[in-house]
Write a structure and sequence with these properties.
By secondary structure, this protein is α+β, with helices and mostly antiparallel strands. It is 33% helix and 25% strand. Strands 2-1-3-5-4 form a five-stranded mixed sheet.
């Protein structure tokens, strides 16, 4: 759904789905061209803004115009509690992934595994690196160890 706003005298009159409002016009995939939008007093509506998801969030707001676009959200700083909740949630996801990777490679340490001693040592180093993953400082920028060739 492509949203556009009818704008007159720098005031937003209405926001609508372009294809519903102009269902008798066949637009290119990327929408109408700029000249057509200007002739019809239309601006594209953006429901997203680039932001740092680790420290900021998007909040719905009264539509506003900025740089020839209409926005329906604004960027707001996360509270310390929200940041900590996000980090804790990310750490939980990392631990879950790490535990699955450890479970999948348990066989590499078994006495009867088909691996050579050198291969077993490589797997032991890899598995220790997985166990140490939570020692990294930023859960949003994890450097995962490379899995040895089997």
């Amino acid at each position: 759904m492509r949203l556009y706003a009818k704008v007159e005298n720098n005031e937003i009159i209405e926001i609508f789905d372009l294809h519903q409002k102009y269902n008798y016009i066949s637009f290119p995939t990327n929408g109408p061209d700029l000249d057509w939008c200007i002739e019809n007093n239309l601006m594209e509506v953006s429901v997203g803004i680039s932001h740092d998801r680790n420290t900021e969030k998007l909040v719905s707001t009264t539509p506003y115009i900025n740089n020839s676009k209409v926005y329906t959200v604004r960027v707001e700083q996360l509270t310390e509690e929200e940041i900590n909740n996000n980090k804790n949630s990310q750490w939980a996801n990392i631990r879950s992934s790490r535990n699955n990777m450890l479970r999948e490679t348990d066989w590499t340490g078994l006495v009867d595994s088909p691996l050579t001693l050198e291969q077993k040592n490589l797997w032991a180093v890899y598995r220790q690196a997985l166990r140490d993953i939570t020692q990294q400082p930023n859960p949003f920028n994890i450097q995962w160890p490379s899995r040895p060739n089997e």
